[in-house]
Every structure is written in C-alpha cells, then in structure tokens.
Give the backbone structure.
Amino acid sequence: MTIQLTSKLPHVGTTIFSTMTKLSNDLGAINLSQGFPNFDPPDALRALVTYHLNNGKNQYAPMAGVPKLRAQIAAKVADLYGRNISVDDEITVTNGATEGLFVAINTVINLGDEVIIFDPAFDSYQPVIELNGGRTIHIPLDAPNFAIDWQRVRDSISPKTRLILLNFPHNPTGTILTPADLETLVEIVRDTNIFLLSDEVYEHIIFDGIAHQSLLCHAELAERTFVVSSFGKTYHATGWKIGYCIAPSHLTAEFRKIHQFLVYSIFSPAQHALADFLEQSPETHKNLAQFYQQKRDRFCNLLTDSRFKFTPTQSTFFQLLDYSTLTDLTDIEYARQLIQDIGVASIPISAFYKEKPPQHYLRFCFAKDDATLAEAASRLCGI
Ligand SMILES: Cc1ncc(COP(=O)(O)O)c(C=O)c1O
C-alpha cells in the first residue's frame, strides 16, 4: 500500500537552475547559469582549513558560531557600516545564507502573515514563507531599469504585513540601494510592526566606486532587521555553505531557538579558518569589487560587437543580456536553444517573476576564469 503524503510545497517542482545545469552538463555546454565561480578560494584560506582540520578543531562548534569568527564579523561590520554589534548576542553563524533566510522567516512569520518580496526573487524565499503559513506579496522590479517602485510598496502594505524581504545588491538585475532608498524605507516602516530581512550576500560585489548601503548603516532600520550574508560569495567558496545572520539581541535570541534545533552548529574547521583569514587578509573582501568589476568589464567588452543589448551591471556577478532584437522566443525557449546551438548555458529570468515577467532577458554568471568568459563571449558574438 502506498501511503498518500500531503505535500507542504505542492507548487515546488524542479528549479530552473537544476534544469539548465542538467541540460548544460548533458550537452557539455559552458555553464554560465548557476551562480558559482569556476576558481578556488584563496590559497591561504584553504591552507587554514587544512591546518584546523589537522589541529583538533573537529568537534561541535558553539551553537552561535566560533567566538573569534563572530568577533571578526563584528569588526568588519564596524569598519564597513559604522555599526557596533554585540559579538555574543547579535551574530549567528549559519549554514550558508540559505539557512539564515530559512530561520529568519521562521522566526517572524505566523499563519496569515504577509511578506513583501521583490521579483525577480531568489527561489528560496517564497517556499519558506509558505511553509510557515505566510502569504507572499510580489512587487516586480520592472525592466529596463529594475528599480524599486516605492509607491507600490506603500500600496502593498496591509495590517497583515509582517516582513519586507530585500535583496540588494540584487540577483539577478544588479539593482542597488541608495541612501535615499533607505530613508524611504524608514518612512514606510516607522510606526509599524513590520520586520525587515535583508539578504546581502553580494554586499562586497558592487561596482564603479559606489558604496553598498547595508541596512546596518541605518540605526532605525537596523533595530528591526535581520541581515543575512554568505562567505560563499565573498571567498569563492559556495560549496562550504557558511554564512551568518545579524539581528538585534531580542530577535537573535528567537532566531537561535530555531537555528539550534535545525542544525545546532556549523562545520568547525572552516569557521576557525574564516576567522583567521578575516583577521589576516581584510583586503580580500575590500578588493572583491575591483576583482569582479574587471570580470564584468572584460565580459561586457567582449560582447560589444554582439547583437545583444545590455547595460553593464552595477553589482553582483551576473550580467543580464537583452535578446529582443534576435528572436521572439520566450526566455526559457531561448535559453534552451543557446545551450543546444552554441553550448552556452544561462538562466531565463521570467522564472523568478510571479506576474508580467519582462521578456527577452537572460542572466549570465561572469564569475569565471578569463578563458571561459572569452570562449562564451565568442560563441555569443557568433549569433
Ligand atoms: C540572493 C541570494 N541569496 C542567497 C543565496 C544563498 O547563499 P548560500 O549559498 O550562502 O546559502 C544566493 C546564492 O546564490 C543568492 O544569490
């Protein structure tokens, strides 16, 4: 007898990332679809992990994270965003940003609560909201500028709004926040019971000399915000799945109640290694923008003579290309065709919109070595 299971996530199927990566692997294409580098974390960081593996750091780490790592995160936040946070009470090391997002949403969302998110949205947000009985309110970032429509945010707020989930620098559009955006956000949430969850995994990848506006920069926002980040994006180590969540102490206390029963603690040798590396090499995260800006410029320059239209992205390691002059195919159809015909895999962004997705945009990840970018660009220019 087959026992019937009631799915908690009936609408979730295979993600577009899995579909495109599988097709890409099957056909041996250049995979610019999923967001991961094809180069290794810094040598010194890898050596530190090996060192700690061989020197006794192999048992459970403290539930909140290795104290030295939390201290280094606090020092970085003070340095970059001018906010002093409590090492003991306001930082939790998580199993990637993904766990931080999962736990933060679990911490604040109850049955019937509404959560505002901006489309195209990272694919984990809505399922976690649904698992908690919440309702997702989608606000699109409309092409071609993909800017936030703050009036639409105001109009979307109801007595049930409990959380606004932001992801800036934004994957996949590269949209960033300005100080004026933070001021508008403060005006909107002031005197409400709305929490904020800020997914800042691309905090160090922002171009052309512009400073990232972390929600931690703003005292009034920081009081109601969970900020999530990831070492995966910063140190080319997406496979380690180590991130962190910063929130005021009363929110962190509730966050940790869930974190401790979900994973308890995070891979210990890497936490010790990251703590040492942050102390020894702060220039690595400070130089990351420059590192990726060179890759963005290289990729965009190589595509100048292509038939795609684009504006160089302001942040992240993703470049959107507009193919509207090439074909009327949907972005999903065209992404498949590019894999099959020229062996280059990308991500169609319509998959991340609830309604009225902009057509004709594909996302390409340029976190790749120069030879890979050159070969991919040459194939794209041949169209
Ligand atoms: C916007 C965004 N948030 C969260 C994550 C997940 O980060 P992690 O791999 O640290 O869980 C990603 C990874 O692609 C991302 O792009």
